[in-house]
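Feature request, filed as a ticket because there's no other form

It would be nice if the structure record came with a short human-readable summary line next to the tokens. Right now we just get the raw output. Example of a typical job, pasted below so the devs can see what we mean:
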Amino acid sequence: MIRRLLLSFAAALCAARASAAPPDLARFQRPDSVAPAPDSARRAPDSLVSLRVPDFRPTPLFTWGPPPEGTPHPERARSYDLQHQVVRVRFDWPRHAVVGSTTIRFAALDKRLSTVSLDAVGMSGLKVRTAAGKPLKFAYDGKTLTVTLATALPAHARTSLTIEYEVVSPKKGAYFIDRKHIVWTQGEAEDTRYWIPTWDSPNDRTTWEMYIRTAANEKALSNGKLADSRRVGGEVEWHWVQDRSAATYLMTAVTGEFTVLQDVWHGIPVGYWTYPDSVQAAWRGFGRTPRLMELFSTKLGVPYPWVKYDQVVVPDYIFGGMENVTATTQNDNDILHPAWAEPQASSFILVAHELAHQWTGDYVTARDWSHIWLSEGFATLLEQVAVESELGADEGAVERQSAMETALEADLQSRRPLVYDRWVDGPIELFLTGHVYQKGGLVLQLLRHQLGDSLFWSGMREYLHSRALGTAVTEDFQRAMERASGRDLEVFFRQWVFGAGFPAVQVSADYDAAAMRLQVSAKQVQPVDTVTEFFEVQVDVEVLTDSGTSRMVLPMKRGIGQAALRLPAAPRAMRFNAGGWIPAMVDFPRATVMVVYQLEHDGDVLGRIEAVDLLSERGGEPMAVSALARAVRGDRLWAVRTRAAAALGLLVATDEARQALLDATGDADSRVRQAAVIGLRGAKGAGIAERMAALQSDSSRYVRGAALGTLAVVDTGAALAAIRTALGQESWTDLERAHAVTALRLIPGQESWTLTARWLAPGTVAGTREAAIRSLMGRVHLMQREAELAGLLAPLLDAGELGTRLTAAQALGALGQAASVPVLEARRAVEADDLVRAAIDQALATLKRPTER
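Raw output as currently delivered:
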């Protein structure tokens, strides 16, 4: 499950930290042995400063963040095995109610069974009877339905019972979207219990059937195969059968007026459920699915394991997507984007991620939430493999780099192992920190790199075959990889999976020109304790010379490592952790001439990105600025040009940086244009306002929005006129209006404050309303209007959209108003969503802290 809200929530929830050293710095200790500057570097006037090697950064390079809060939650104990479940539901629109019945077949485990407890939240009208129709006694506390069996069930014997129920206005689990007349459900982590009585934990798997009633003009989607549909009065009943076992958090029902586009992969039906007016966008969003099914089936050695694969778009979805078995739910805005919105709006990664879960998560399920990285980390790996396969090695490397930055920051914010069982309100908190997705995927990529593709994919196949249609814990995966590779992986799993943190490495090198010998030394300097040790890693070192590229592997044990290499020519550039396979922070300072050479000659996009990051810190050196200017104009990959634009934004006081950014606003790639426009916000000089005004007709509305923000900085009057125009524009996801509201943050004064506050009103598209909250928060302290804004935001705690409630709660905590405490506490008492509850708890902790001192 991709959760856009989760990561933004995690970033806002964590306290601000002092900036740490950026990854992949380099040190070359002997300036006298540095090769002459290349011709390209000599184009800029410079002094010997570019030949000087910076010192190591002061240690410690960082401090670890505290572990996430919470108490241990061991695997839930079971007394019975849920074997099959038949659910019959209709959705009562006038009351927003789920009206249903369910028949469960179950077997006692190792002991006699007198009572059966089912997860069932907020239900009424409960009736329970035997298969023969006789009433059964039960107790219900609003969360758990405990049924007393008529006769105790012997160990391993089975029986069934039927429950009638209804849920009016469910707080979670089932969502009625009036504006589209669509119902969709959401099970992960433990929300199926809000609309179906069931065993709602991942350590049991079952088969099931869904009978779903809809209006005659609507369709119903669920898991498995459509066995039948029939008219019942003025309605249609859809009968879906999931005949291979899966976890109950993967149950789904979606109803509405959909057009179903039919595709196929090796005879397996592939359906794209979309709105009748969005057929072309759906093909654009979903069309690569069969190719991805082929890719994953080949890599994993398990052909797509289900009877069909449907994907359905739904409105107001609270996440990006959810891998309900055979029937993935997708956020409509993430799939049905217009062509002009690409490449910023791309559905490819989301589609790949959720499809990957059909193997890792659905076919094999993490037995306990503490092992959820087996699902999310594996899907993150496979989405990166998909990018690598479909879009090329450079794009795949950029995806890994993005994950690397998030994963490193995750441990600096809240260090924890991948296997972790602590939470406060609910297991969804385990998804928040950047560990189970990004770090989980990177640990798998590291294992892939160390074992090689052949052994790694053999291990993945062994794992899936050995745990097929079952549950697993991390030790199962470790044993499968060891069987397939013939290697002892205990140290790897102890350090990277059951341990926490990452290596921080100081690196030095010495080149002996007479002997043509390079020696590289490395020392780990991360804080070491009971959960983070010195990592045993094999580090790739790459050296660029005039005679070509040389490579070696440097082994590190007990925190130190050395390796030597005979070079045919003096080093022009060097990289430690070449390829970026190890999640690590590296302090390896090099002279600017070497970094410039790396930027201009490294064939690996990650090496060029590393060089950009280093040069961004050397704004006092003309050679650095010139190299970045050349990169933003001429590097072959958009990601390097975008990174260079951001770096030049830090150096925009120089004429060369400013002109390079102005030139980049005409780049063919809208991502580069957008970055260049943002980089110009600190610039002064003629031509900027005119260029920003001209960009209001750019083909990309993302570029237009960024240009509005820059115009707000350089020409307030012109910006206000353009913003008023944009506020009146209707666009996909209300994008232009949201950008205009965001730009208002940069314009001081009452007029822009009033304009922004209008978009807090009910009826505003959620994304625009949340942009208005952030815009007002961006200048509230300068205007000293904290109490006023807190009053404006308090009603938004009751908004229907999860994201709005979340953003409002975070803002109220930051505003520091004691009057917000009872408002937040009142919402906390009725709030069902774990994310919002956690945000409210954090806000209350912040607001109450001063009174406790």
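Something like this underneath would help us a lot:
The first helix runs from residue 4 to 13.
The CA atoms of residues 84 and 735 lie 45 Å apart.
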